[in-house]
C-alpha cells in the first residue's frame, strides 16, 4: 500500500464465476460481474487486514458476500508488492426464477499485485477463490466454489 501502516478504503470491480452442484453432479456455472468495497488497516509493511462487502450481479438475480481477510505482502520493487491472503465470510445468492435464497459460509484465498501510484493511492489486481457451504434449504443445489478476477483502487488515509 501507499504507506506502511494506517487505515485504507478500497473499491474493485471484476468478473465472478460461481459453480453449482446438485449431489455430485455439476448443474450450472454463473459467469457475472461483481463490485467490492473494503475498509482495512495496514498493520505494517507486510501485513494488512480488511472487512469487505461484495455485490454480485448474477445472470438472473443478485447476491452479496461479506467477511474479513488477511493478506501478507511481499515487496518486489519500491512501488510494487505481491500479496497472498485468506478470507472468511458469508454469502447470499438470490435468483429471480427460484423462490429460495442460497446462503452460507465462504472461505478461501487470494493473491495479486499492488502498485503504489503516490502517497495515497494504489492500484490492486488479483484473483480470489472461495470454497463454500452456500446452499438452498428448499432444494439440493449447493454452490461448490466462487472465483473472482478483479482490479481496483485503494486510498490510504
Automatic annotation (TrEMBL):
Outer membrane protein beta-barrel domain sequence ranges: 5-157
Identify the InterPro entries for this entry: Beta-barrel_OMP, OMP/PagP_B-barrel
Q: Which organism is it from?
A: Sulfurimonas autotrophica (strain ATCC BAA-671 / DSM 16294 / JCM 11897 / OK10)
Could you confirm whether the keyword Metal-binding appears in this record?
Answer: no
Q: Which UniProt keywords apply?
A: Signal
Protein name from the UniProt record: Outer membrane insertion C-terminal signal
Superkingdom per UniProt? Bacteria
Amino acid at each position: 500500500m501507499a504507506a506502511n501502516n494506517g487505515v485504507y478504503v478500497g473499491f474493485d470491480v471484476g468478473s465472478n464465476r460461481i459453480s453449482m452442484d446438485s449431489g455430485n453432479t455439476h448443474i450450472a456455472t454463473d459467469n457475472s460481474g461483481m463490485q467490492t468495497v473494503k475498509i482495512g488497516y495496514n498493520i505494517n509493511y507486510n501485513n494488512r487486514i480488511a472487512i469487505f462487502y461484495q455485490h454480485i450481479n448474477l445472470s438472473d438475480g443478485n447476491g452479496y458476500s461479506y467477511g474479513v481477510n488477511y493478506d501478507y505482502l511481499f515487496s518486489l520493487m519500491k512501488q510494487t508488492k505481491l500479496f497472498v491472503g485468506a478470507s472468511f465470510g458469508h454469502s447470499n445468492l438470490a435468483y429471480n426464477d427460484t423462490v429460495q435464497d442460497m446462503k452460507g459460509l465462504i472461505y478461501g484465498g487470494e493473491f495479486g499485485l499492488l502498485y503504489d501510484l503516490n502517497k495515497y493511492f494504489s492500484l490492486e489486481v488479483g484473483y480470489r477463490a472461495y470454497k463454500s457451504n452456500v446452499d438452498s434449504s428448499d432444494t439440493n443445489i449447493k454452490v461448490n466454489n466462487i472465483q473472482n478476477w478483479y482490479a481496483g483502487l485503494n486510498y490510504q488515509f
